[in-house]
């Protein structure tokens, strides 16, 4: 027994030393990520062999989309920022990581990949799809296929919707839009809180390439369900700070957001009855947002489809109407529009200037 005890005591310092080395390595990696956050000039990393690049192992991402926000897009390649650690990573179109660490290191690595693979600059028309809270760009997969058939670049924008405010998410969008070099027209398709991200972006930024937008179930006047669950601890934990901004409040955050100056249409989910899907809400609704609260004055077209909130993006009628509006400015095949006037009086008009 004594020999075994002695042997254990002799091995223990080795184990402690190993654990300390691992802890130190983890600390250095973390510090490298934090240091990298401050490096924003890609030119600084040209030709530089950084510790982030040397230690990178190409691997498929394991998820965790609520902790990452896109800051750059190029032909399916994305540079993302981690909201917790501050470091960045470079992902290819299959979500395989090719670099991580500072923004400069990831930008430099992307430049090398562009050259080695002879990737041409982007051009033409892009459609940015923006998911709602708790979701990801994957929720637009069905719509993405239809848009690709319409000969455009589809930019799936991801942001940490449950970890930051809507204002912070809008800044991620700003970086992505700025990164779309060579693109001469930008359309938007937004679901739920994604529409509020765009309106928040427009409060501080603008881009002459913005052309048209389709809003799907966007709580443009707020969501009364958010008022109902606002103080619930589980809601506050899961939906984070942005969840608190979704409430209906005549003097609140949403009420101060601007209306887009470019053409946009609204599609609302509905049951087609006075009671809607959700007994907690007044009037027709999609289970989460009342139809009346999706209606943003200034929209050039409006329609409802029988659908619940979470399934709008994959609804066949929604997909067809969305592709049609981005091309022609009308949701319906007939070309007849149902605009929402600035006074919120709904009228009918037929497109004459397509």
SSE arrangement:
Elements: H1 2-37, H2 51-54, E1 59-60, E2 68-74, E3 77-82, E4 88-91, E5 96-101, H3 103-116, E6 124-130, H4 141-149, E7 153-157, H5 166-179, E8 183-191, H6 193-204, E9 210-216, H7 224-229, H8 233-244, E10 263-270, E11 301-306, H9 316-328, E12 336-337, E13 349-350
What does it look like?
- The model is unreliable at 1-14, 16-52 and 344-354 (pLDDT under 50).
- A hairpin with a 4-residue loop joins β4 and β5 (96-101).
- The longest helix has 36 residues, at 2-37.
- It is built from 9 helices and 13 strands.
- The chain has helices spanning 2-37, 51-54, 103-116, 141-149, 166-179, 193-204, 224-229, 233-244, 316-328; strands spanning 59-60, 68-74, 77-82, 88-91, 96-101, 124-130, 153-157, 183-191, 210-216, 263-270, 301-306, 336-337, 349-350.
- The chain folds into 2 domains: 2-115, no CATH class; 123-350, Alpha/Beta hydrolase fold, catalytic domain (Rossmann fold).
- The protein is of the alpha/beta class.
Any idea what the CATH architecture of the largest domain is?
Answer: 3-Layer(aba) Sandwich
Pattern of helices and strands: HHEEEEEHEHEHEHEHHEEHEE
Please report which band the strand proportion falls in: under 5%, 5-15%, 15-25%, 25-35%, 35-45% or over 45%. 15-25%
Query: Roughly how many Å apart are the termini?
Result: 90 Å
Q: Please compute the radius of gyration using only Cα atoms.
A: 24 Å
Structural class: alpha/beta
User: What value does the average pLDDT take?
Assistant: 85
The counted number of beta strands is: 13
Low-pLDDT residue intervals, each spanning 5 or more residues: 1-14, 16-52, 344-354
**CATH top level class name of the largest domain:** Alpha Beta
Largest sheet: 6 strands, parallel
């Amino acid at each position: 027994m004594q020999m075994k005890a002695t042997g254990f005591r002799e091995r223990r310092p080795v184990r402690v030393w190993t654990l300390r080395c691992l802890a130190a390595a983890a600390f250095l990696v973390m510090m490298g990520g934090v240091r990298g956050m401050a490096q924003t000039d890609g030119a600084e990393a040209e030709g530089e062999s950084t510790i982030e690049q040397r230690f990178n192992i190409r691997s498929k991402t394991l998820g965790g989309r609520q902790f990452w926000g896109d800051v750059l897009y190029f032909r399916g390649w994305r540079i993302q920022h981690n909201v917790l650690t501050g470091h960045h990573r470079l992902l290819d179109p299959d979500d395989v990581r090719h670099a991580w660490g500072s923004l400069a290191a990831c930008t430099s690595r992307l430049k090398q990949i562009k050259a080695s693979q002879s990737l041409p600059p982007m051009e033409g028309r892009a459609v940015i799809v923006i998911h709602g809270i708790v979701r990801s760009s994957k929720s637009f997969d069905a719509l993405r296929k239809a848009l690709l058939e319409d000969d455009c670049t589809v930019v799936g924008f991801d942001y940490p919707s449950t970890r930051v405010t809507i204002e912070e998410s809008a800044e991620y969008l700003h970086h992505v839009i700025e990164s779309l070099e060579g693109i001469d027209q930008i359309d938007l398709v937004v679901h739920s809180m994604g529409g509020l991200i765009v309106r928040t972006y427009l409060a501080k930024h603008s881009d002459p390439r913005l052309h048209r937008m389709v809003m799907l179930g966007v709580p443009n006047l707020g969501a009364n369900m958010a008022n109902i669950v606002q103080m619930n601890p589980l809601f506050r934990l899961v939906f984070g700070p942005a969840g608190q901004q979704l409430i209906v409040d005549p003097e609140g955050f949403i009420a101060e957001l601007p209306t887009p100056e470019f053409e946009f249409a609204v599609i609302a989910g509905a049951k087609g009855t006075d009671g809607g899907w959700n007994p907690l809400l007044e009037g027709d609704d999609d289970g989460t947002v009342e139809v009346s609260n999706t209606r943003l004055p200034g929209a050039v077209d409006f329609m409802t489809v029988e659908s619940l909130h979470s399934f709008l993006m994959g609804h066949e009628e929604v997909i067809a109407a969305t592709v049609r509006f981005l091309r022609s400015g009308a949701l319906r095949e007939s070309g007849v529009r149902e605009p929402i006037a600035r006074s919120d009086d709904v009228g009918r008009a037929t497109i004459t200037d397509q």
